[in-house]
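Just scan my protein:

——
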Amino acid sequence: MSEAGVIHDIGYQRYSGPRLGRFALQFSLYVHGLRAAFGLGRSAKAKIFPWLVFGIMLLVAVIAAAVRSQIGQTVFTYTGFADQMSFLIIFFLAIVAPQLVSRDLRAGVLPLYFSRPLRAADYVTAKFAAMASAIWLLLGIPQFIMFLGAAFTTKDGAKGVFNELGDLIPGWGYSLLWALMFAGIGLLVASFTGKQAFAAGGIVAIFLMSTPIVGVLASLPSTTANSLAGLASPMTLIAGVGQWISGGNEGFGLDLGRFGPIYAIEAVCLIAVSLLLLLARYRKVASL
């Protein structure tokens, strides 16, 4: 008797466990992206640059905390620390952002991602959150070390600690603003190429090549042009927002005049536009 058409039981079983859904997929992508930003779970070579940047920033924070505790002199404020470390963050972003998104393009795994109940918005949200969290940690942890050095050597007791905490929290908020700006622009640039070298070069170019424009505008004889010069570069834009909110003259020493709110509006719009363009980019990829 012929066995044609007979179905053999080879042991496959239907999955009967819990189905975690889109949020679990987003969270897994976020955790994976945050680990990848610091080279965790990857080769030793992938860990060198992120941890070198982190180590330099920690060293600066430890020195600042030691100076503050020994002689009472403030080397950096918490917002000033973020401004001074911005160039290191640029190079960190140039290495990490292509690893988070360019590798997926090059490896061709996006169709596999989007074949699951994962939408383009979920992918963008997870990657953006991972990149922004990594940058915030790079700034926030050293700022906390500076806080410890100041708070536990204060001569004002609990009052001094609370005063120092009142300076730290706005500093963390300012670092978050840096992280959102850097993450949005960096991921947007990296999302257009699967070649990490091209993505890294594009990210560095956007941040560094826009800085001389600020210098040119600031040198013009027009007071309005001088005040608006910082709008031409993401770095001076964020520094301008911090300067306007704090009422100080730290960072890049911009003369904002009456245009402080314009800096805040452009910063919010630039972050929003970066996310919208990133979402449009991956919606296009998902539809292919």
In short: The radius of gyration is 23 Å. The longest helix spans residues 158-190. The mean pLDDT is 86.
